């Protein structure tokens, strides 16, 4: 039940000063009885004064109650979405306390003739986060999110301040994700598979910086300037810096029907040691083994990443395609790496993927488990490929096929099973290997 | 004051539609005066319509107030137990935010002829935890607890999801304690002494896994399957895994009178490097020195731990005894280590130890400090022993006597003083040493 | 609106039992009409009993509403200061959840003939903290604060328990700041410049200990006994310990007019390895380079620090001066280092610096941004100097001039720009360098 307290407060207050009030009918009757001569003048005055006195008592009581009620409804709370959400009546302040837990278990199958290091079966707390997020003085926002699986400042995720006092423009300062790649913009709790696709090797990640963005029904634009990541300690040399921009256009954007196009660019100078590295696991994280890996590329000036995005939703069906190319400028010959993926998913239970402001959001099942429902069930498939071979760099080229099933008992919970078959690896330390992955995840997030 | 809001809401709402309503007596009087001819038809109608109009105003006001009140009582809050607890009126959602702080200071005494390394006096934040815990959609629960004294994912303690939608059966997935040893099942904030006894070297700890458990007035049972601990990163070899079960039987279980019997078993394969180690400090943690220590035992296949538990409460008196045996299967001769302890405690102030669902819970003093009371005072003594000598392993055998006094000013606070005298160490690096420990702890926990 | 719920509850409850009640006037009229013979005895009884029945219904409804209201106002909430604050009606329990984020960006300029290591430009999350703080059972308090930029227990900041049940005396146990130096007592979110002055090399920091303090309008006193810091793990040698005391006297202490004098002393034995080190960056933290640095001073027995404080506020103008001397007792010749700073600041927008209990507190702008205001604007200048040269120790002597501007859009936010010019370095690894610093900070704190 959505409930407008201001309206109530106004209604309640106006009724206090209304000329008609409860009990006035008795005074009218008294007056008539007096006029009729049924009661004497003295009797009339006696009852009338008692009525007036009582009226005052009633009014005072009501006022006190309304004051208390006013106080009690000053802050509105909600725990019905898992975390704690609160906001003040006037809409100037709000606060959320929430978290995320992802529990993974993975089993690996490999060719017997594999020459490289093996993938080790195991379990993992993939992400364990808490955050506080809020709004203050109407136009300002903040967020501080920490992932306990990280060590020290490597666990700092979103940590920023926003200003939204300008029409349709958000200014953001702090540590947050570069506006790059659709699968990165979409939260890890909402991506279709347990792990993002192979070209996530080119993900830009989070940096400390400034971003201006504008978001509309049919398009979004973001431009940002970044320093280095939180965990980079500048010492005797300057840290790296970067610039990023992303444009999205959604000619169709309504519930259950979406067409999304995106274009993003990400420039970054090399960090203090003038090196970069690209590597990627087999769409799994429990094992720490990267199946493709450029190793440390030295003498690097800068990298320029370009991303193309295409996504569509048609009722229970959704698809998403991205191509990423990374150009590495270095002393000597420049390098270029790239990769792409295409995924499709289908809700057996009729839900539709939610698209908001240039990225995908969470799933709300049509019927929850425990409320005469079986939650939402989704099937998904993905092909992804990455090429880290270029010039003298023999990082390897890999492609993989992933099948997944997701079960959302309610909006807070998610269980996923993924099967990944690496189809081929050409070059690199894992040349000709074809590992497979079976992975389970349990997740709560709010 | 426990307060049933649903009942109130029902009562309030039913009164709205009640055929008898405040003010109806005036209408009755009007009717009678009209019948008696005291007032004219016109006068009757005039006052009646005014009464009706006022009645409507009163009803509208009441409805608005009740709506606001309904909103204000949608979530019920409680800060009177230290942390923040909230739950929605319908019982579908709940959330707690709490924490624990343990501050230790320790002084060590030693034989002058001690040959090994010395124990260093000092202070320590023993545990500094916060957690969020909750219930959602009635049948699901979650917890995320972090200990800031740990580094990175080593600080992740309870991190799990539960399902309680099945009758008398709880399913739990995530990171949580193996169901093994009574002194481990009992929270560190509720154990009798500042540190657990010597055989805690055999504690199973927390692992990522799945557990089914059932809890009854007179018995509990739990069976679980585990992967490795959170902080174990699988790489090129499979992580270890384990299976655990625990049965408890309480033929007597009423307030102030408890008899508890327990039997538990814990199997675990060795981690990737095929080694295990058992070691234990002198029932203290400030100094990092272990008085018994097997060192790294290599070529290990698996360990099997067996635990026997006996505990009783009789009014202010309580006692607890455990025996643990650990069998190590390895290439070559297998090994067996064991240990046991017996403790007894007595409340001078008349409280009784609380037993719930196969383990001990917290103390609520009869009279709080600041409310005409002196809190709860408890005296305790413990004998414990552990033997880590077997075959080629010379880990040492030790036994110690511990005396303790606990003061609980209120249900949130606890202050403890412990004196530990190690009676003898046979074998190992600390052979023939007899260190003593004096330790103070201040604790808040909610 | 400050709102006394107890008074309301009392008023509401007393009105329930009042002999005059709403509706009594009708009974009086009935009685008169009966006496006049206008209505019959039977009619009188009928209406009267209906009135009585209705009266009871009204009373019951009111009682239910008041019970619900009582429940709804049991805990009072406030989110209008940024974080979440709550307290129970009786004043026995309270809880705050809050945090702090400081985002820094720094650029460094240096002499071309600088011989030492360079300062590297960069960005940084300077502090990212959350805390829970509360009151329980009226006389007890607690706080647990963690800084996510620290690793493991190095991130533990305030972690303590307090007892305030004694008149004008606070007892504190746990991890908290030594009572030493005005610029250290003043929170990092409230100090005038982004970083504290050069003599902060002598800051005592936080240790685990016990403190008794008393705070009055015109003076404060604190005495404390400490073990070592949280992150010091005692092993085979005893940890260091310390004793500290601080006296402040404020002959003038009213809003807008303050004169503060302070004297503090801090004794500490050397840690297990018998060494101490003093070093300081150029009033910046992004670069990790210390411009003065004693290196490891060995064979140290103890240090004794002495601090003198002087501060004044006159309307928008404020000033603050401190001198610190550190005596190092060691095998061989003893050492003495010292330093001082003087700063002055002025609010262009008319605010005044808030002084409370021997230290400075936060700024509340006269007019907030977004509420017809431009926030508070403050200009500040500081000279500071430190001498780490003595005997065989060639740590360097440095002095610097700092200019700053602070903008406080509202009580939660702060943006600062600082320019630091190191005037000269004599001795040490950075002899004759004159680096400069330009630093920006964005901060939210509540």
Can you put this structure into words, describing what you see?
The structure is a homotrimer of 446-residue chains. Chain A has 446 residues and is mostly beta strands. Chain A has two domains: 5-72; 75-445, Porin (Beta Barrel). Chain A contains four helices and 22 strands. The first copy, chain A, has helices at residues 5-16, 24-36, 41-72, 182-185; strands at 75-78, 84-88, 94-109, 122-136, 140-147, 156-166, 169-177, 206-215, 219-226, 242-254, 257-269, 279-281, 290-293, 300-314, 317-330, 335-347, 355-356, 359-360, 376-390, 393-408, 413-426, 436-445. Chain A has a 16-stranded antiparallel β-barrel with strand order 3-4-5-6-7-8-9-10-11-14-15-16-19-20-21-22. Chain A has a two-stranded antiparallel ribbon with strand order 12-13. In chain A, helix 1 (5-16) runs antiparallel to helix 3 (41-72) and helix 2 runs antiparallel to helix 3. The longest helix of chain A has 32 residues, at 41-72. The interface between B and C is large, with 73 and 75 residues.
The gist of it:
The structure is a homotrimer of 446-residue chains. Chain A is 14% helix and 49% strand. Chain A has helices at 5-16, 24-36, 41-72, 182-185; strands at residues 75-78, 84-88, 94-109, 122-136, 140-147, 156-166, 169-177, 206-215, 219-226, 242-254, 257-269, 279-281, 290-293, 300-314, 317-330, 335-347, 355-356, 359-360, 376-390, 393-408, 413-426, 436-445.
Task: Name the features.
homotrimer, mainly beta, 16-stranded antiparallel beta barrel, two-stranded antiparallel ribbon, 22 strands, disordered N terminus
């Amino acid at each position: 039940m959505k409930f407008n307290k201001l309206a109530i407060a106004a209604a309640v207050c106006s009724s206090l000063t209304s000329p008609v009030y409860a009990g006035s009918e008795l005074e009218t009757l008294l007056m008539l009885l007096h006029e009729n001569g049924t009661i004497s003048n003295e009797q009339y005055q006696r009852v009338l004064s008692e009525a007036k006195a009582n009226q005052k008592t009633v009014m005072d009581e009501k006022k006190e109650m309304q004051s208390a009620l006013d106080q009690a409804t000053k802050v509105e709370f909600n725990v019905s979405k898992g975390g704690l959400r609160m906001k003040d009546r006037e809409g100037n302040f709000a606060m959320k306390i929430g978290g995320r837990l992802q529990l993974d278990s993975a089993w690996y199958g490999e060719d017997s003739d594999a020459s490289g290091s093996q993938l080790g079966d195991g379990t993992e707390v993939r992400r364990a986060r808490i955050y506080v997020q809020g709004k203050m003085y109407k136009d300002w926002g903040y967020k501080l999110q920490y992932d306990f699986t990280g060590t020290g400042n490597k666990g700092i995720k979103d940590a920023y301040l926003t200003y939204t006092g300008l029409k349709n423009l958000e200014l953001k300062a702090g540590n947050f994700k570069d506006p790059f790649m659709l699968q990165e913009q979409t939260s890890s709790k909402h991506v279709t598979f347990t792990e993002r696709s192979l070209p996530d090797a080119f993900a830009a990640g989070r940096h400390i910086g400034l971003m201006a963005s504008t978001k509309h029904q049919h398009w979004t634009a973001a431009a940002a300037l970044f320093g280095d990541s939180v965990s980079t300690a500048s010492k005797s040399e300057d840290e790296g810096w970067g610039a990023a921009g992303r444009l999205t256009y959604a000619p169709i954007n309504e519930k259950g029907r979406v067409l999304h196009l995106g274009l993003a660019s990400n420039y970054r100078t090399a960090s203090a040691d003038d090196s970069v590295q690209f590597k990627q696991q087999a769409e799994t994280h429990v094992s720490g083994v990267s199946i493709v890996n450029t190793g440390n590329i030295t003498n690097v000036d800068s990298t320029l990443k370009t991303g193309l995005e295409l996504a569509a939703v048609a009722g229970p069906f959704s698809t998403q395609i991205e191509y990423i190319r990374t150009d590495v400028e270095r002393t000597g010959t420049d390098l270029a790496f790239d990769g792409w993926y295409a995924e499709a998913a289908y809700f057996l239970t009729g839900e539709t993927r939610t698209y908001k402001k240039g990225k995908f959001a969470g799933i709300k099942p049509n019927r929850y488990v425990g409320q005469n429902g079986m939650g939402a069930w989704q099937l998904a498939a993905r092909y992804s490929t990455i090429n880290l071979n270029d010039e003298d760099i023999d990082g390897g080229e890999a492609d993989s096929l992933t099948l997944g099933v997701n079960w959302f008992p309610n909006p807070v919970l998610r269980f996923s099973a993924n099967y990944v078959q690496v189809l081929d690896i050409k070059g690199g330390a894992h040349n000709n290997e074809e590992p497979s992955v079976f992975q389970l995840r349990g997740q709560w997030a709010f």
